[in-house]
Amino acid sequence: MRYIESTSTDPYYNLALEEFVFERLPRDDSYFMLWQNEKTIVIGKYQNAPEEVNQDYVDKHGIRVARRLSGGGAVYHDMGNLNFTFVVDQDDLEKINFTRFCLPIIETLAELGVKAEFTGRNDLVIDGCKFSGNSQYLKKGRVMHHGCIMLDSSLGTVSEALKVRAAKFASKNVKSVRSRVTTINEHAPEPITMEKFKEALKRHILGDDVETYVLTEEEQAAVRRLRDEKYATWEWNYGHARAFDMVREEKFPAGLVTVHLSAKNGRIEDLEVSGDFFGNGDITELELALRGLPMDEKLAERIAALDLEQYMSGISPEQLAGLIRG
Prior knowledge:
alpha+beta, BirA Bifunctional Protein, domain 2, Enolase-like, domain 1, about 35% helix, about 25% strand
């Protein structure tokens, strides 16, 4: 496994670098990356930015909004946060699975005197409070697993910059974002510096003999083009807005799903699916396939024929049909 460390703190560059490593670097190698971003909200591929971000707060505090290549929920990055990425062969990983990539984080923290565990869909927690969210993207036999680790992040900014969606909570007694997230240093026997944590994580994953991959000038130029043409654009991060008649939303075990829907004569006329679920297919393909379908009792059967799992991992045809039908 070869090591890549980004010296940039620009979220658009770093997300472009991830995609470049995943899509363009030799497939006979695997890669481990560490990187940091200045103040940024990073949203999942299938999320609707205006519904996830407190735009007024973000604008006033110079926080950038960036969309990543994988699904899942919105996370906050700052210089107290360390991001990591694995790019490896898919092997026997047929579906999205987080455990094998999160275990090294847990083991590294144990060496530093912090007891952490993996829980839920994709979270790492300490004493029940989340300090790391993880996501994955699978394509053509390769997997990109990435996560953010809150070593010493500003928790107050997290709660202000992200909107809390009522549908995400089973209980009406909703706790604040601030009480549900934590940082590693709140639980460490003594404060851990970013450099110490990075070195411990590198050593645990790569051993003492680290083989570093250094991008050529031509490769760096390609990353910058991808940054400018995709990740830094309004079209990618905010997208277009279509007019819809209905909004339906539900929190399933596999994630939050929001459907913006227009219907005519009992059939789906147009719809847009968003949320913090995971998936690897192009969600617009699913949206197009659903247009024109009757919203009757056989909708789940029709959705089942569309290979829903590749677009919305863990969401059943019955769940999506029930949400659409209302």
